[in-house]
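Inverse folding, one chain.
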């Protein structure tokens, strides 16, 4: 296989690991407690998050919970309605970091996610995890192609997740009365996260596809984990129907 194509495939594979770990572990498990996971699976997701993103789960959960508390009003960490669409799309990681490190948000919104021994020894050292992840790709592909694969993965991961916070609050369907929007294309490339209006309507639902024709691939993985008894679901659908006045913004 040509080396450029192999690097592209590896970048895509690592991106999928990061996206599914983000939606299942960081979002639906850590931030909203929508599911429970077997201990070995929690450790696996923590390692994947550490190697592919360097994100600290308690910081991610705290910032996301604050976003729900102040959605598109003053206090929202990354509202495109307040900050501008393209600022959120390209500076989303900086907004996350600024709020996560403000000395207040994590203490207030992630009290249930206190760091444990593994965090102090390994997972709180983001650059170590990212360095190991890049090193694995370089060993597998050679340093040039490993660095290229790492760059492609990082760029795609940052832009896709930022897209949920930017485009997901500006364009798409609004079957439920909140300021978020559903974009099915974005959902397909973000493991379901693009169904953002649904999520804001029912934040503790483990399933984001709530209406006919919607696809949530993150939910497919959760269903597989449930079928193999590696996870349980607390809530998978809200008890309400979309209002008749559903709108589409484009």
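Residues assigned per position:
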């Amino acid at each position: 296989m040509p080396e450029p194509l192999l690097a592209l495939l590896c970048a895509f594979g690592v991106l999928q690991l990061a996206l599914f770990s983000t939606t299942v572990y960081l979002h639906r498990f850590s931030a909203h407690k929508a599911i429970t996971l077997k201990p070995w699976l929690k450790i696996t997701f923590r390692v994947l998050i550490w190697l592919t993103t360097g994100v600290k789960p308690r910081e991610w959960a705290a910032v996301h919970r604050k976003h729900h508390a102040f959605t598109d009003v003053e206090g929202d960490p990354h509202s495109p309605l307040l900050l501008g669409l393209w600022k959120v799309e390209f500076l989303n990681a900086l907004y996350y970091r600024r709020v996560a490190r403000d000395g207040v948000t994590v203490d207030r919104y992630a009290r249930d996610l206190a760091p444990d021994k593994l965090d102090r020894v390994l997972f709180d050292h983001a650059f170590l995890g990212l360095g190991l992840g890049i090193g694995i790709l370089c060993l597998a592909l050679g340093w040039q192609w490993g660095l290229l694969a790492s760059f492609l993965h990082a760029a795609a991961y940052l832009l896709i997740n930022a897209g949920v916070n930017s485009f997901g609050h500006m364009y798409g369907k609004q079957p439920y009365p909140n300021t978020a929007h559903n974009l099915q294309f974005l959902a397909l490339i973000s493991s379901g996260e693009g169904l953002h209006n649904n999520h804001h309507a029912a934040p503790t639902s483990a399933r984001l596809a709530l209406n006919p024709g919607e696809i949530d691939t993150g939910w497919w993985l959760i269903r597989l984990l449930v079928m193999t008894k590696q996870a349980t679901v607390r809530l998978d659908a809200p008890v309400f129907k979309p209002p008749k006045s559903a709108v589409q913004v484009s």
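DSSP finds twelve helices and four strands in the chain. The longest helix spans residues 3-31.
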